[in-house]
Structure formats: C-alpha cells, structure tokens
Write a structure and sequence with these properties.
Layout: H1 15-37, H2 42-56, H3 82-88, H4 100-130, E1 137-141, E2 145-151, H5 152-155, H6 168-181, E3 186-191, H7 205-223, E4 231-235, H8 248-254, E5 256-262
C-alpha cells in the first residue's frame, strides 16, 4: 500500500513574511523621517492652552462650566449667564462680532443722520411759518426722517376719504416743500381713532386709513413733480395712537395723516 509522502519543509521563513517585514521597515523609516522634520513649539502650545483655559475653563479644572450653571461634562450646555458671557466676548445675541471700530462708525453715522434730519426739520419749519401753516402742521424728526403731521379734521369729513376744498391749499404748500427738500423716500401714512365704522362706505378703520393715505398720494401725484417710485402710502388704522382714545380730544389727535421725509443718509 502506497504511503503518502510527507511535504518537504523548506528551511527559513516564508517568502511573504520577508516582503511584509520590508514594508513595515519602510513605513517606520518614513514616519521617523516625518517626525524628524517637524518641530513642536512648546511655548506656543502653552499659550494656546492658557487661552482656552481662560476662555472656557476646561483644561485645568476638568468638568467646569462658564459662570454658574450645570457642568458641561454632564452633557448639558445650559448656562444661566449665557447672554452676559456672549456680550462680554464682544458678540451680539445673534453671534455677530462687533468691533470697536464698527460700533464707532455706527455711532458716527447715527450722529450724522440726526444732524441732517435736524437741519431739514429747521428748513421745513421756516417754510411752514412763512406760509402760516405751523398751526395746522406739526413737525418732528428722528435720525431717519422728518415727519409732518396733518390733522384729519383739516383734510377729511368724518368717515370720508375725499379731501376737503379748504385742505387743498395746505396740501399745495406741502407739495412744494416735498419737491424742494425731499431727497429720498417719502411715506404717507393714514391713521384713525378706535371708534368702529358704522353705516359708512368703509367697513373698518384699516380701509378708511388706507383710503385717506391714497387720496393724499393721488393729489400729490397730480399737483407735483414727485417721482411716484419714491412715494409710498399705507393705512395704519387705529394701531398707532398718539393720544388716549377714551377722550374726544385724544381721538381727534389720533385721526391724522403723517408724511415722513427720509433723509439722504437714512437706511430705509
């Protein structure tokens, strides 16, 4: 009976092991070479670590939170003084960083806007006084605009959007002022009191205030050379009162038309 010949064992390690060992040696030499070419600046590393430590309080103390609050290491990021912390780092609530230069520029811009509005208001006030309109029209100003307020009783009958004949000369003078001084957007707003509409053409104060603003707008477009693209009109209804609606005097003050003349530096 034939016997199975034993496999001949070759002396030494298998050939694949030699190839693998050569590869490992090459990789080792490669990483040693990379390490020898790199340098670690210990001083810079310590400065970075100190900066993180001071800002977040996480390196030296381990599980600590910023201010009073639950530990960050517990997986909770709730900070009771988060708003105060964010503001102290020079960031607004939206996360936008505001530098001192930007804040200074914004303050200078607002100052310039306010000065321009004040100068414009003085010129318009002189024009109103020359035409004896200072008693019929109130004037105010902000950093964005100069506002002319016309009494509703001067312009319209109760519940009506049709301009009174007596109001037309006043609006003519206002149109001249707008043509002379307006350099940017003009906005015409109608306002009413809070008395509900009854038995009138308009079902509510929103429609009435919008109709009155539109009447003033249309008159200005027919009697002046203003660009319609720069003049807006809107009805604000009873929602922006300037006086107490519980008294007849207050309701009279709330029935008004406001014309806002935005200055050339306005962000509107």
């Amino acid at each position: 009976m034939a016997k199975r010949k034993e496999d001949e064992v070759k002396p030494g390690a298998p050939a694949w092991q030699s190839t693998f060992a050569d590869l490992m040696n090459l990789l080792l030499c490669f990483f040693v070479l990379l390490f020898s070419m790199s340098t670690v600046d210990a001083q810079k590393f310590e400065m970075i670590a100190a900066s993180f430590n001071q800002t977040f309080s996480i390196f030296s103390a381990g599980a600590t939170a910023i201010g009073d609050g639950i530990l960050i290491s517990n997986g909770v990021s709730q900070l009771n003084e988060l708003d105060q912390y964010i503001n102290s780092t020079g960031k607004m609530d939206t996360g936008e960083t505001v530098s001192e230069d930007v804040a200074s520029a914004q303050a200078e811009l607002e100052k310039a806007q306010l000065e321009e509005s004040e100068e414009l208001a003085e010129k318009i006030e002189e024009a109103l006084e020359e035409n004896n309109l200072d008693k019929d029209i109130d004037i105010e100003f902000t950093a964005q605009y100069v506002q002319l307020t016309l009494k509703g009783s001067l312009l319209f009958d109760s519940g009506s959007v049709e301009l009174k004949e007596a109001a037309l000369p006043v609006l003519d003078q206002v149109g001249v002022i707008l043509e002379r001084y307006a350099q940017s957007t003009i906005e015409i707003e109608g306002h009413t009191d809070n008395v509900p509409m009854s038995g009138a053409k308009y079902s509510n104060n929103d429609e009435l205030s919008s109709g009155r603003a539109l009447s003033v707008f249309n008159y200005m477009m027919h009697t002046t050379g203003l660009d319609p693209a720069t003049v807006k009109h809107s009805g604000r209804g009873e929602y922006v009162p300037v006086a107490d609606n519980s008294t007849p005097e207050g309701r009279t003050m709330n029935r008004r038309v406001e014309i806002k003349i935005y200055n050339s530096l306005s962000s509107y």
